[in-house]
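task queued by scheduler; priority normal; single chain, no ligands, no partner chains; default sampling; output format set to C-alpha cells
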Amino acid sequence: MKQISIIIFFFILPLAFADLELGFYASSCRKAESIVKQVVQKRFNRDKSITAALLRMHFHDCFVRGCDASLLIDSTKNNISEKDTGANDSVRGYDLIDDVKEAIEAACPSTVSCADIVALATRDAVALSGGPKYNIPTGRRDGLIANRDDVDLPGPNIPIGALSQFFAAKGITTEEMVTLLGAHTVGVAHCGFFASRLSSVRGKPDPTMDPALDTKLVKLCKSNSDGAAFLDQNTSFTVDNEFYKQILLKRGIMQIDQQLALDKSTSTFVSNFASNGDKFVKSFATAMIKMGKVGVLVGNEGEIRKNCRVFNKRN
C-alpha cells in the first residue's frame, strides 16, 4: 500500500468565519448523506475491498494540499495532476465517487462538494467494515489546484521519526499517527513494497519478521512479482485492532508497519491498541475526524465542482 503547516484561511466577506459543521447540508441538500451511504453500500455489497481503497484515497488527498479533493482531478495536456504520480498510481475508487456525485447532482445541483463526498464515503465504508460509526462535520470546498509536484507522501520504508515529523506538520500527533495507520487493517501491499525485507532478497532472514510469514511471502512474490499480501492476515476486511496484534508478533508486512511495534516512540500505543479493541475503535473515529479537517477550504474558498474530475469552467 503506497502511502499518508496547518493552513488557516481568513475571509473578509460575510462567510468569513464559516467552518465545517455537522449537518451542513441539512437545508440545502437534506438527502446528501443518505445518497452517499446508499451508493457506498451497493458497492460494498459486491466489493469489500472498497473500504481500503477509500481510506487510501482520503489519506492521500488530505496529506497533499489538504482535504480538498485535488486528488480526484484528471490530468490534461497542460497539467499532470496528483493522481498521476508514483505515490498515487494505484489509488482507486474514483468511479465510486463519480457515481455518488452523479446521484447527488441529480438531487441537489452544485451544492455538495467532492471533498465532502470523499470524507462521507470513507466514513460509511469504515462502518460497513465493522469499524466505528461516527459523525463528521461537512462544508468542505473543492480545491482549484491539482499538480503532481505537490505530492510528497512518505514511502513504506520511512523511519518512524521522519514519519512522525510528517504527520506533526499536519497537526497530527504520534499517537494519532499510529491510530490512522491502523487503517492498514483492511489494506494490501504489493511485493515491491516489502520485497527488500524477504530472505530471498536479503540473502538472510529479517530478524524483525516472523519466519513463517517470510516463507509465505517469498513464495507469493516468486510466483508473481506483482502479487499482493493483506496487511492484516487474519481479519482482512474488518476494521479492528487485529493489525496491532500481528505486528507485535513480527507479522507486519511492510517495514513501516513493523517498526511501529519496535520503535520506543510508538510501541506503547501499539500495545495499548492491541490489548483494547474498544480504545482503538474510539481513537480511530476521533483521528479520522481530525484528519478530515486538515487544510480544508471553507466559506468562499475553492468551489463546488459539478464533475469531481475537472475544475468548473471559468467565465
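post-processing summary
- The longest strand covers residues 188-190.
- The chain has a mean pLDDT of 93.
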